[in-house]
Amino acid sequence: MFTKTMLIAASLLAITGAAQAESTTYSVDPTHTFVTFEARHFGTSTNRGRFDKKEGSVTLDKAAKSGKVEVTIDTTSINTGVGPFDGHLKSKDFFNTAEFPTAKFVGDKFTFDGDKVKSVAGTLTLAGQSQPVTLAASNFNCYTNPMLKREVCGGDFETTIKRSEYGVKYGLPGIPDDIRLLIQVEAVKQ
Known about the structure:
By secondary structure, the protein is mostly beta strands. The chain has two helices and eleven strands.
């Protein structure tokens, strides 16, 4: 009986060790990763912009259905295609980039459907305020990049935040509180 119990315990430890050993780290590819936002403008058109500089990493364990993601966004790299508008968005009215030059998302609650990531929950820190957010995933996939000869994983992620929760209240209620964030990300296995 003792030997059988020891064999079962050893088997469980081996399985646990194998699942932990499958954790893989990926580096965010800035050339295939885009962070964009959309905001309604006085109930008419939609203003759009992006952040041109971002970096981060993803640790993914497909067997254990877990992971962690950290993405840092350089808010000074905001780009709407209109210089004066970019300047206003960098001001204290919005992102206050002089005081808060970066925003950061850290997520560690992954939801899977089979091998596909369906969502990542975590914390978004923006303008010095941190709030919980959940990014819904679509088109998540992993493939072997033919040029890099390495695995790449990625997908499209999105959420809607209330900017007032981050202390960004300029223009409310004319400029709506809801901001849609769209994150297209690809990360390369390290």
